[in-house]
Design brief:
Bound molecules: S-adenosylmethionine
Helix content: 25-40%
Strand content: 15-25%
Number of strands: 7
CATH superfamily: Vaccinia Virus protein VP39
CATH topology: Rossmann fold
Shape: globular
Largest sheet: 7 strands, mixed
Distance between the termini: 46 Å
Number of domains: 1
Number of helices: 6
Length: 210
């Protein structure tokens, strides 16, 4: 089993396996690894999967529980006209850039039912660091920015969200919608790592004897 399938099996499937009649919106199909997993759940629990990709992935499956739309994932008007008004699960695995992922989260959030889940693939920069297994500048920077963006959304909406991460392979963020309240726009995290106070703390740690 490859890393992606292992991650989905271990960290995603157990969270959705008990949802009855699930309505799933999948953004990013490619060769259909996640599509296949979601269709297994749909067939077991009487669900429906709606998938979007900018490329034509319509040959991935002929399952009657699957509808595929060749479209940009941020064509909200078009996609919302094709899917039910409320969904249980949103899976984001298209363009892994923080600004884009943020746009998708805010664009689809109102559709998600209370207790529904958002999964965001590719939130860990660890495998992409210099000299690591997947050494890649673009993925390192974008995954770290996506991770930090998700933290800032959570920090501004703690009372209405649950947030968990898996750092296996390229990582997965798991957001649960706890209430019907709107998602507030995130404030910048007030981090103190670049304050004079912290520079003194770091200096002190460097000179003091243990
Ligand atoms: C990482 S792959 C998806 C992998 C898939 N989930 C799987 O299980 O194998 C990303 C896919 O997103 C599609 N994509 C990239 N940007 C997109 C966008 N803005 N809108 C729709 N699809 C996009 C690409 O065509 C590609 O097929």
């Amino acid at each position: 089993m490859d890393d992606f399938n292992y991650k989905i099996e271990k960290y995603l499937i157990p969270l959705i396996t008990k949802i009855q009649n699930p309505i799933i919106l999948e953004l990013g199909v490619q060769k259909g690894r996640s599509t296949t997993k979601f269709l297994e759940i749909c067939n077991k629990n009487n669900g429906q999967l709606y998938s979007v990709d900018i490329d034509n992935c319509s040959k991935v499956s002929n399952d009657t529980r699957w509808k595929f739309f060749q479209s940009r994932d941020d064509d909200f008007e078009f996609i919302k006209s094709k899917i039910p008004q409320k969904i249980d699960i949103l899976f984001i695995d298209t363009l892994h850039e923080a600004k884009h992922v943020k746009k998708l989260i805010y664009g689809y959030y109102p559709l998600i039912k209370k207790d529904g889940l958002i999964f965001i693939d590719d939130i860990s920069h660890i495998p992409y660091l210099k000299n690591k297994s997947r050494d890649n500048f673009y993925c390192e920077i974008n995954n770290q920015e996506t991770y930090e963006m998700i933290l800032s959304i959570y920090s501004s909406n703690e009372e209405i969200l649950e947030l968990n991460f898996s750092f296996f392979s390229s990582g997965l963020a798991i957001i649960k919608k706890k209430s019907e309240n709107n998602l507030k726009w995130p404030d910048k995290l007030q981090l103190r790592n670049k304050t004079i106070k912290n520079y003194f703390r770091v200096l002190w740690n460097a000179v003091k004897k243990d």
